[in-house]
Amino acid sequence: MSIKFRQYHKKDLWLTAQADGRPLYYPYYIYRERAYVLQLTGRWNDSEAIQRRNLEFAVKTGDPWLAAKCRSLLSATLILKGDYDEAFRLAEEAARDFESLGDEKERAASHSYLGNIFYKQCEYAKAMEYFREYLAISEKEGNLKDAGHALGLIGVIYYDQGNYEEAMKYYDRQIKICEQTSDTIRLGWVTGNIGNVYLDQEDYVRAMEYYQRSLKCSQMVGNTAGICASIGNMAIIHAKAGRHQQALDGYNQQLALARAIGDERTEAYTMVNMGDLYYSQGRFGPARDCYQRQLEISVRFGDKPITSFGHYMLGKLERLSGDLKSSERCLDRAIALGREINLMHYLCSYLYQQALNYSDTGRPELATTTVKEALEIAGRVSNREITVKGSILKLQRECRDDRVALAEKLLELSSEHAEPRFQAEIEYALFRANRSEEHREKALSLYRSLNAATPEYEYRLMIGELETVL
């Protein structure tokens, strides 16, 4: 069956096929563009329905290229919805068909979908294979836009593994291509990804700049999913700056958008961030509800990174609530998933919290080995918070019988970390080591200043303890 299409002739926007000796007509190209717009604006169910009709008609035409293209496009939408099994089958079949037809550009696109499926399920090695092949084919074919996309996908894997330097190299290459090719949609995504790097590195000014740039790009093209992501990311910065109402407003806006477009994965991420906000306010009931809702969604979708983080936050919450057994169980789940998917930036935090549990329940050897592992990973991924907190715990374990030696080593640590939040941790540890009024006053002053700038429940706990100790 031949397919006719000439750009400036309306009648040729329709495909024809034969059924029982009679011609069938179908406006494939119009429907294909409509499905794309629906996908972009987050109406994934509507986009899927059109793409299934397109595939059905493509099969009737007997054209193998068109059928493969429809399978590939449908796979991309199913990935967004989390229907990975069917998405994989369709993308794999499309890749085989394009290879037999000699269409390398479309085969590369199908490989990007296959890689994305593995990425979503945290099988990073397999995802990287497909993404690198996607890059190689795109560069060979001279397809600059797809090459830029492949660079960004590779960068995301490095980011998830805590290799920020390598991630930024790929993001920088992608952003240049996006600007060169006027690819506004992908420019929105890569600027958001760069913002994520700065957020993890606690450079909130730069992070906000990139999130705002990402939001502007998404608004220009009506990319609802991109708008949703940018709003949520900016809310995280508001939360870290102590602007809790602005953060909550942002999360509620993100949640409404995610639910409106049926994006449960984003709903899960929003719930965990809202839970963190409630946790920082000491509102454990709403925080627990958010984490449990998030885990319900993320477990169903097989989203291992956010599942591990949800278990971690529940573990922290249970620890502050005094239920160390429940805390340990939650953290065991978080650690197991973190190890499985090589989630190093967060794994060091999981291990540190578990080391605290071991220390508080009379298991010093486990506490020591666990905090040493946390410190080793924290050094690799440049997690300064765990480097300081873990070092304090390690010194407390090593010098538990020599308070003088402990104080000397804590003072050495203090000279290496001048930031107020780290100074507060160290001054508090010094006070616990020698019960010095000088260190108590310094720690209290620092925690008061920190809480004034960024109100946190844990800061208030420390202030309360230091105010009541004579």
UniProtKB/TrEMBL annotation:
TPR repeat copies, ranges: 108-141, 148-181, 268-301
Tagged with keyword Cytoplasm: no
SMART domains: TPR
Source domain of life: Bacteria
Keywords: TPR repeat
Pfam families linked: TPR_12
InterPro entries: TPR-like_helical_dom_sf, TPR_rpt
Name of protein: Uncharacterized protein
Organism: Candidatus Edwardsbacteria bacterium GWF2_54_11
